[in-house]
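Q&A log
Question type: sequence-to-structure
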Amino acid sequence: MPRKLQSAAISFGLVTIPVNLYTAVSEHDVHFHQIHAVCGSRIKQQLYCPVCERVVERDELVKGYEVAKGEYVRVTADELEQLEASASQSIDIVQFVPLTSVDPIYFEDTYYLGPDKRGEKPYKLLTQAMEKSQRVAVAKYVMRGKENLVLVRPARGGLVLHRMYYADEVRDFNEIERGAAATTEQELDLALRLIEELSEPEFHPELFRDEYRERVLDMINEKAEGKQVTIQPAERRAPVVDLMEALRASLEKGEKTPKKPAPLPARGERIGAKRAQAGRK
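Response status: OK
Response body:
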């Protein structure tokens, strides 16, 4: 169940729509603790001052901004709090634009917007109007004391909010060397054929899963059961030497992504199944 973060209100023109903000994603990365190899205990991190040559407690710390090498301007929490944007529940729409005009590089994170009981009808109306006009909303919204640039778009009969980077936070692609190699019409034709071979009508995210995470969890489960673990090294592909030959070989092999990979069971189900299997042995 998505966790409700806070209440808000979408505002455009004279219309105000009360909504609730929910978490939209839940990452499933495998997290490890650092433990002492000698005794197996989890270690504790300490803050050390190399000038005073002693461990420093957290209540002794202040914020500092480096203005020159080794020179810092001290800033207090009260000063930062006074500079924070005024608390506001309003998601102020400033313009509507086509979604295709927004580069995904500006998306930072994603939240679901659900209607408050007092805002169900205007919420539905705005969703339908944005779907029909094929427009998304660019807005300003204060979160955690910071004024954020956000994008609100219709999705699955509701509204999704993307917190965005400002333009000066995105690096200029012209800073990156992209090479000056020339390609031939024949190479382009083979590449287009390979793209067509690997193409599907639409994207289905449920068909993909984190296979590395699966392997890590399988290894951890086997270690927890006291089994000897043998890891086969990953197969490494040889670097492309002849581009045309590689394209032709790919087409001849007819490589395609799996149409429907087997769904990944929940972690608890997988661990339970492994333990049950071990018990039968």
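Response note: Residues 54 and 89 are 45 Å apart (CA to CA).
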